[in-house]
């Protein structure tokens, strides 16, 4: 894709080849302010559109994206670097979420309270009504531009809000195409808008008094600043943040399943997943065999062009990110870990890396999130130790445990301080319907088909005083 180039614009570079894909200027702050004003007016009109019509328009849009999915998948892999089958999977999810939130909207329930359960007001009736919040700011990271756009835009507009999306400055192009199709589908332009840029533009949205809620996905560090800046105008901040998740392998685990899941969970999106199994916490009796098998499988994952269907592992998002992972590997070795495989870097490509002998004295075992294809192997002798290791981090996004014993799985699952635990699968697991989100510094709030609409609405209670008949026929 080639465009007229603007010398002051931000360069969108293909991380696989280093070639320029496009240039896109950041939104001027006055443009952001203008978008905010339009979003306020647009939201008022959109909230009047009946739910069945909102749902219909969302489905028209979802179908339109489906017609363009091949083009958009290639665009995403080109700007982001993930294997194209994974971009296609994101578009499948996009369809399901817009269709799913449209359906969810149509069956949204309210409550009625007949107040004869309380003296004095016993002839009153109350009914509840969920109303939209207003203008939502949706701030998205680089690793799942389409998936996370969908988890924000679909419930926000279903609920009658307007939304301004700010994609990552690294990956704005697929999102820009989606927003064009939103408008082509007939959803008003002021209801879904897009602005471009990095921290400055994001901060403008977060600090605006016109924004009712921020739905943010990204690093914990930036998430904290979003919470602080959002608090100045007391807005709702929904935060999906970082992780350093553990995969616990008990002594009766099926190693075939462990290996398959560990490889999948640490190569997906080229190792750049919030809920990847970043640490393998294995019983000492299985340590050597599991390590050998991961060296044979994970460490030999095929690296290459994401548009080649045989590629398992593409580049990281940019050379800075790749250099950071390379540094984190060296740093961990400096702290005493053993480099069993990998460690090398070629521009944006980082070799799949296995670090063994990791223990709780090292940063990688605790709060250092490594956003690349690196497995940190730790071993334990008792289940208590395994749980202690898994929980010894400020993060609490996801986790997993492998065992044949469901009582042990239940014990470990209830003791892990995470928003989700997967038994006999990787913690890199996200169904559409679940409430996805973290404990501790991994976030605030939950995203998913069963939860998000209410997160984007506020509750009003209408009381009808004295409306019920008194005692009749006595
Ligand atoms: P990031 O925090 O650097 O950026 C995320 C978004 O915030 C980008 O759009 C960026 O431009 C914007 N931003 C930066 N500074 C800002 C500010 N001061 N105010 C407002 N917006 C600002 O994250 P990233 O590097 O794009 O993504 C990787 C991180 O995201 C990892 O930590 C990963 O674990 C996390 N993540 C979490 C989830 C989840 O659901 N929990 C999902 C994906 C990624």
What are the main properties of this structure?
about 475 residues, alpha/beta, Aldehyde Dehydrogenase, Chain A, domain 1, Aldehyde Dehydrogenase, Chain A, domain 2, 2 domains, seven-stranded mixed β-sheet, six-stranded mixed β-sheet, 14 helices, about 40% helix, disordered N terminus
Summarize the SSE layout with pairings:
Elements: E1 10-13, E2 20-24, H1 29-48, H2 51-67, H3 69-80, H4 84-106, E3 112-114, E4 125-132, E5 135-139, H5 145-158, E6 162-166, H6 173-184, E7 192-194, H7 199-207, E8 211-217, H8 220-231, E9 236-240, E10 245-249, H9 255-267, E11 277-283, H10 287-296, H11 319-334, E12 338-341, E13 345-346, E14 349-350, E15 353-356, E16 374-380, H12 383-391, E17 399-402, H13 406-415, E18 422-423, E19 443-444, H14 452-455, E20 457-464
Parallel strand pairs: 5-6, 5-8, 6-7, 8-9, 10-11, 10-17, 11-16, 15-16, 17-18
Antiparallel strand pairs: 1-2, 3-4, 4-20, 9-19, 12-15, 13-14
């Amino acid at each position: 894709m080639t465009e007229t180039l603007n010398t002051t614009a931000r360069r969108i570079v293909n991380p696989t080849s280093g070639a320029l894909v496009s240039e896109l200027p950041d939104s001027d702050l006055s443009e952001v302010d203008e978008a905010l004003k339009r979003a306020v007016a647009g939201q008022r009109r959109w909230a009047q559109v009946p739910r069945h019509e909102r749902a219909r328009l969302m489905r028209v849009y979802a179908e339109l994206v489906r017609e363009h999915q091949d083009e958009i998948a290639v665009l995403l892999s080109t700007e982001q670097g993930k294997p194209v089958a994974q971009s296609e999977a994101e578009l499948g999810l996009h369809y399901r979420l817009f269709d799913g939130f449209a359906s969810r909207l149509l069956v949204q329930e309210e409550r009625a309270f007949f107040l004869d359960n309380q003296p004095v007001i016993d002839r009153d009736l109350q009914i509840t009504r969920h109303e939209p919040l207003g203008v939502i700011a949706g701030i998205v990271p680089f690793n799942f531009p389409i998936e996370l756009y969908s988890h924000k835009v679909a419930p926000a507009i279903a609920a009658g809000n307007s939304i301004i999306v700010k994609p990552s400055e690294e990956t704005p192009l697929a999102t820009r195409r989606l927003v064009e199709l939103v408008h082509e589908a007939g959803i008003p332009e002021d209801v879904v808008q897009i602005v471009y840029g990095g921290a400055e533009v994001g901060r403008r949205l977060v600090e605006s008094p016109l924004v009712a809620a921020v739905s943010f996905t990204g690093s914990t560090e930036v998430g904290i600043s979003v919470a602080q800046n959002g608090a100045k105008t007391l807005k709702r901040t929904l935060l999906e943040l970082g992780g350093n998740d553990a995969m616990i392998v008990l002594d009766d685990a099926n190693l075939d399943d462990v290996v398959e899941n560990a490889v999948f969970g640490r190569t997906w999106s080229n190792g750049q997943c919030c809920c990847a199994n970043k640490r393998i916490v294995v019983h000492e009796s299985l340590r050597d065999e599991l390590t050998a098998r991961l060296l044979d499988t994970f460490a030999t994952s095929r690296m290459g062009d994401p548009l080649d269907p045989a590629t398992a592992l593409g580049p990281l998002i940019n050379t800075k990110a790749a250099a950071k992972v390379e540094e984190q590997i060296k740093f961990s070795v400096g702290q005493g870990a053993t480099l069993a495989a990998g460690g090398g870097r070629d521009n944006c490509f980082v070799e799949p890396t296995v670090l063994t002998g990791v223990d709780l004295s090292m940063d990688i075992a605790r709060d250092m999130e490594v956003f690349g294809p690196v497995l940190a192997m730790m071993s334990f002798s008792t289940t208590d130790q395994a749980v202690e290791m898994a929980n010894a981090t400020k993060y609490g996004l996801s986790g997993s445990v492998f065992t044949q014993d469901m009582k042990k799985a239940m014990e470990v699952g209830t003791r892990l301080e995470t928003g989700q635990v997967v038994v006999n699968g990787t913690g890199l697991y996200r169904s559409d319907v679940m409430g996805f989100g973290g404990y501790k510094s991994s976030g605030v709030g939950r995203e998913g088909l069963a939860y998000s609409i209410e997160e984007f609405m506020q509750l009003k209670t209408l009381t009808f005083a004295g409306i019920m008949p008194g005692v009749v026929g006595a």
